[in-house]
Amino acid sequence: LLRQWLAKNGKDVNFETLPVGELNDVLRDFYYTIRNHDGNTYSMASYKSMRAGLNRHLRLPPHSRNICLMKDKEFASANLVFVNVLKMLRMQGKDETHHHPPITAEDLRKIKMSGILGLHSPLGLVNKVWFDLQLHFAKRGREILRDLVPDAFVIEKDKNGRRYAMFRYPAKGKNPEDPMKMGKMYDMPGDPNCPVFSLELYLSKLPPDPPAFYLHPLKMTIEQMRENPIWYKREPMGVNYLGTMMPRISIAARLSKRYTNHSLRTTTIQLLCEPCAAQPEWSVSAPQKARGDH
Q: Which residues fall in a coiled-coil region (predicted)?
């Protein structure tokens, strides 16, 4: 988005190499004037995601700049504008987190330790895959979830040899989105919580020619799981069932509140907005459309 904004305003699009002072000036104007394709302001969540995505883009290879757009004093004037725009968006009623609070760090730990998500059962596995995909790709609509096909994702490697999952096809809807701009879910080698491994395991346990991506699990003993390569029925999870996944997880894991599916969207934004701090419980790669190179 920043590169598009720079080009539209006749400015140098190579912002990655700008001195800190010049970058601050550019960001100050960008934060104040950026609008979506309809000419309207973004939601608070999307607005925060822009800055977080830019920060990650600058800090990660190949740029590897030792800066933090959120905390460094050199960006004080840009951040003052950013905060004032957030206040304006809140007054406009665009604060999604007011109705859909992000999952707290303590509740994320409860989910991780509860066994609700895991490789130990068909139900735990499909719950984990759903949670991972929602957290990484921040897909909100129930219809989008229900319309996912079994080969919706492809596993690729980046230039450093690290594996990641991404969408194979453009998103459906009025404005189909390039899969390359829909985000990536990176693997976590050696970690039992690796989301790419969970996704591959889940896909390997579906019946032949599965009718949908999300299928209801079979009830199986550990011995049956070892002997039977198929863990799921040929029964797709419906729109309403998928739409209440997070409330059911909240109850089963005894979380502090009953979260909605949309809370995972705001949780994603919260995790993305902590790139200058310690690594969060779940590692989330910034959606490509929020990064500075798009």
A: none
Domain holding 147: CATH number? 1.10.443
pLDDT tens track for 97-150? 555 678 888 999 999 899 999 999 999 999 999 999 988 886 544 445 667 889
Compute the distance between CA of residue 66 and CA of residue 69 in angstroms, rounded to an integer. 10
Sheet strand arrangement including 185-186: 153-157, 163-167, 185-186
d(CA 284, CA 184): 9
Cα separation, 33 vs 26, whole angstroms: 11
Whether residue 24 is found in the same domain as residue 70: yes
How many domains, in total, are found in the chain? Answer: 2
CA dihedral 31, 33, 39, 44 (to 10 degrees): 30
Please report which helix (H) or strand (E) contains residue 134, including its range.
helix 122-137
Q: Cβ distance 3 to 10 under 8 Å?
A: no
Q: Does residue 111 lie in a domain region?
A: yes
d(CA 249, CA 115): 10
